[in-house]
Amino acid sequence: MMTQANAYFYDGADVALLNGQYTDVFSLLGMHSANEGKALIVRCFLRNAISVDVISIKDGRKVASLDKVNEQGLFAGTLGRRVKPFLYLLRVEYPLCQLDIVDPYQFDSLLNSDDIYLFGEGSAERAYEFLGANWRQTQGVEGVHFCVWAPNAKRVSVVGDFNHWDDTRHVMRQHLANGLWELFLPNVVEGAHYKFDLVYQNGERHTKSDPMATQMECAPHNASIVPPKAHHSWNDTAWMSKRAATAWHKAPMSAYEVHLGSWRRKGEQGEQYLDYQDLIEQLIPYVKEQGFTHIELMPISEFPFDGSWGYQPVGLYAPTHRFGDANGLKAFVDACHQAGIGIILDWVSAHFPKDPHGLVRFDGTCLYEHEDPRKGTHPDWDTLIYNYDRGEVRSFLLSNACYWLREFHFDGLRLDAVSSMLYLDYSREPGQWLPNAYGGRENLEAISFLQILNQRLYQAFPGICMIAEESTAFAGVTKPTDQQGLGFGFKWNMGWMNDSLSYLGRDPLYRQFHHHQLTFSLMYAYTEQFMLSVSHDEVVHGKGSLLHKIPGDDWQKFATLRAYYGFMWGHPGKKLLFMGCEFGQRNEWNHNQSLDWHLLAYEPHQGVQRWLKDLNHLYQAMPALSVQDYEGAGFSWLDCENSRDSIFTFVRYGLAGDAPLVFVINMTPQLHTGFRIGLPLAGDYREYLNSDSQIYGGSNQGNAGTVVAESLPWQGMAQSALITVPPLGCLVIGPATGLAEAN
Fold first, then answer.
1. The whole model's pTM is what?
2. pLDDT tens digits, one per residue of 667-713
3. Degrees (nearest 5) of the Cα angle 174, 177, 179?
4. What is the CATH number of the domain that holds 669?
5. 479 to each of 441, 491, 501, 526, how far by Cα in Å?
């Protein structure tokens, strides 16, 4: 019998298949024409099977019983008089059960030539729809289509719960021209764990997580997970329409940066993360109440190490398991939109970690990264750098950006560590980097990728915001790509942040000698579309909280912090503030625990929180604070040279008919009475905000809510007034009817 059965296989093919060395598996397994088209033959490999019958799917009838070729599980047989291929299943008898298995080797390739072309070209925006694990239906049969890019692998198999992690069971179809491997598996269930088992050219075997997996196991496990079929039903049409019609560079934008794992926790010891439903019920109402327009989430792509805060993602397409599943995340974003809150995602495209189950040497070669460590390794973070010159890598990243914006309705991306992408010598000594083709230090491939990314995303997703964390003086970060810029919508103003926080930490007595640290930013404020950012990076790793940075007793600390926020909200540029800063968190941020919400039992912390809330609401109510953020006409110093008193006075202007606002910021504890300031209009003024008010925890020094202009020219204005300037305080003054008109 064995001799007869072996005739079903080519010479040595059965041995090669059993040893996992037969790569053109579709030419062997499945249904094939035999005997010069006069018969059909079916071959299959099913370990531990006792017998196998071929059943027609159309009528459920048994067509043939296959011969057992050997004890390892090879079966084969001809199908009587049938000569035309048909859909079939294999009825398999095992020692303890009987299973009906739809043979995956009877199906043709499900890949589309256009998709393949765009992927290789570097312009695919939906590569996740054919790469990874996607539910598909072909010839009326439902299953999961697995596909992975591994051009230099000798063999690739899908292994998982559905085949007992047997690497010889489901060898994939190889496409030599483009390096893709695919297999359609009908007998897979939602939630099944899987990986790709790769044989390298040197014979080594390595099991890798799916680079395009949309769900992954939690550490220390790292299997990919077949996604559910159900999808979220969106209810944010009104928001998406409004977003598309909004010019954000002219609109108020106040972002609340959140690390979901430590904003707030639950459990007796605070050991449990809030899930997305908790966040819908707690975070969204809080952000709305505080008046922020946006939430910016620190990275939520799957990452194994909590201490990386998400900045070393291994599953770039998989929302982290920590807070729920993908549909839970979509429900959270949907709820944000229904509450009128935008949501920005922190996106990591500058580097990836070396975890062995991830992208590193994925198919035995440097596929996603550069081979040369002078271009492929980040010395600071011991991570790897994407090869931005490779079309498939660009498609991987471009599709990922589109994935978060299209499938999850995020309102934009904040790109981490853009500076490290732009320069080949970033954090490297001479001799540790390679110049570009022109001998320069600019990473031309990364620059091109960023330009294409921004151009494509702004075109595909109207109303989004693309934000760069870029800490150098690279020109044109927010300049349009058709003018040789990078095409971002906004750039974090790291210069303003460093200067202002340095100033904040100085004793008030000596601030007069560092006055320029708060005025210099206006020298370059209109060179880019800036976002003023006080992010997580400024309150961690020994830097201390904002409150901790400020010298003096508690009264001075809280008063100074309120005045600083007043200056920040009055300064041109969009705003970003890290969670906890809005109520004066005392300890520096710890990702392993909740913020210190108990501090809100104390009035000084309540005062800072109330001050931020009122600043945000004024910011949204008064167009002067946003509509000309990036136009010189929107800002005018009244006095930027009063270093002796450390007082800063300026005016913010809107368009014609918008009420102007005057800011007076005093950064010393000295009270000033009879202090004259210029005013842009005649008439009565009111104190819209006074950070020294008792309701904010101040000493209640001010102007009793009103200021009257007189026709005495001062500071370049035709009108002026004598006012009281509170100690370590911020005043916001405007025409008495301005707020009512704005509302």
1. 0.95
2. 999 999 999 999 999 999 999 999 999 999 999 999 999 999 999 99
3. 55
4. 2.60.40.1180
5. 21, 10, 27, 11
